[in-house]
Amino acid sequence: MSSTSHGRIPPAAPPTALRRSLGVIDGAAIAASSTAATTSIAIGMGTIAATVGRQAPVLMLLAFLPVLGIASAYARLNRSEPNCGNGYVWVGKSLGPWPGFLTGWVTLVGSVIFLAFTGAVTGSVVLIFANKVGAHRVAGIALDPQSTAVSTAVGLVVLTAVTALAVTGVRSATRLQFALLVFEYAVLLGFCGWALLTGRQGFSLSWFDPFRISSGTAFAQGLVLAVFFYWGWDAAFSVTEETKSPEDSARGGFIALFAMLGLFLFASVAFQREMSLPELIENGPQALPYLGAKLAAEPWASLPLLALMFSAVASVQSSVIPTARGLLAMGRDRTMGRVWTRIHPRYGTPAAGTVIVMSIAAGVALLAVALPRLSDMLLAAVNAIGLVVALYYGLTAIACAVRFRGARHDGPREALLAIGVPAASGAVLLGLGGYLAYSYVTMSDHFALRPDNGWFMLSLPTAIVLGGLVMAAVAKYGRRSPYFTSGQGTDADALTLPMDRTAA
């Protein structure tokens, strides 16, 4: 006799679909937070100035062009096949499962490394702000921003908090990110606008002349740096299965990308209006707080530091969200374990995967405190992350050109947009990655375990790629994943997820 005949209700099957509750603004908030314009501006302008002098504005503009081409490839692929695994799925179907798995793998490992390293950086920024407001000790512990242990501990508290928010609902997480972005951009635009109007360094159109850069090597190095200022806009596509319409992901990504262009151009010109070149280079890592202190008295001078702290927190959270969803897509294809596919029955999020990602990042960060050599490795990995980004952006763009190669019969315009632009943009990104690898090889004449040694920096992304090939072999021969046998994967549910009409 069945259990229902006795009045018992059989247990419901665990949910397998993410909950659709996001719109365009939510996607834009995730993408903008992941790109972290405030953090890039605050610590990156001095680095670019040291490389190309006063030509930072033109490099921001030139770097935007291939990134825009990559974004158009993402939008076209997402319109054809919305999937939270994005590049992992698209490259796998267009170029083959091995490069597809590698695309997913390097994205995930790069994000975990970023989380482990950025947690301590975020903790340091929080401690600097705490010192500014007069808090120097808590429970007998000195709140020293220079202490790696204390900074890491505070960073882990932040990471735990943003992970909890990401687990309980991506919509609530995006609302927090949007609020933080509004504050960040208001502060950034206010201080940069002030510097633009009152700066004593004369404005010059030569800042937009790329031919004034001292050498081809300096141009290439500067362009690499500028391209990776934009890294993170693709986070909007990681929540495509949680948006009410697949096109909302593309709209959110493009909104964030064009906003980044405006902010980077505006800030680069404003910084150069207010600071001389030696001044900008010297204060590069603290350029935004330095600008605040130069233009205003306390407490207003601390607003840029507060904006930087908010940017760091939002960036950490926006990295947790897409990483868990990428692993969800891989788990569905059995290229990774089933634990990554667990969806929380109440919150409709990949809760288990989100917590595991945070735990792995936290473990790596704690090991880095205990093992100074590991800390050096993390720093080198972050410095070399451009190679990883170039690889997965480039492969995804090439996959777009291959998938839509039939558009060559649909007229010159469609052929250009579907094939030409993605192929050219992918080639540029892969070429920049190749140049970056070459620069690492030539910057050192021997191998040493130091974050400024080129061979060491090149060895880390190489290890990530080799590790990805090993994991791909495990997925193919050990797990016998359908991703490697059929070439299709098990992502059909991505196209038919139910709309969550109860979401606010």
Report the top-level CATH class: Mainly Alpha
Number of helices: 19
CATH topology: Amino acid/polyamine transporter I
Q: What's the total count of β strands?
A: 2
Mean pLDDT level? 82
Uncertain segments of ≥5 residues (pLDDT<50)? 1-15, 490-504
The residue fraction in helices comes out at: 55-70%
| Major β-sheet strand ordering | 1-2
Strand content: under 5%
Secondary-structure-derived class: mainly alpha
Morphology: globular
Amino-to-carboxy terminus distance: 43 Å
Compute the CA-based radius of gyration: 23 Å
Profile the largest sheet. 2 strands, antiparallel
Domain module tally? 1
The CATH homologous superfamily is called Amino acid/polyamine transporter I
Order of helices and strands: HHHHHEEHHHHHHHHHHHHHH
Named at the architecture level, the CATH assignment is Up-down Bundle
Transmembrane segments: 28-52, 58-77, 98-129, 149-167, 179-199, 211-233, 254-271, 305-328, 349-371, 377-404, 416-435, 455-475
Membrane topology: Multi-pass membrane protein
Keywords: Cell membrane, Membrane, Transmembrane, Transmembrane helix
Protein name: Amino acid transporter
Report on this model:
The chain crosses the membrane at residues 28-52, 58-77, 98-129, 149-167, 179-199, 211-233, 254-271, 305-328, 349-371, 377-404, 416-435, 455-475. Its main location: membrane. InterPro entries: AA/rel_permease1, APC_superfamily. The protein is mostly helical and 504 residues long. It has a single domain (19-480), classed as Up-down Bundle (Amino acid/polyamine transporter I), CATH 1.20.1740.10. Helix content is 69%, strand content 1%. It contains 19 helices and 2 strands. Strands 1-2 form a two-stranded antiparallel sheet. β1 (137-138) and β2 form a beta hairpin. α3 (56-80) packs across α8, α13 (303-332) crosses α14 (351-370) and α15 crosses α18. It is globular and about 65 Å long. The two termini are 43 Å apart. The model is unreliable at 1-15 and 490-504 (pLDDT under 50).
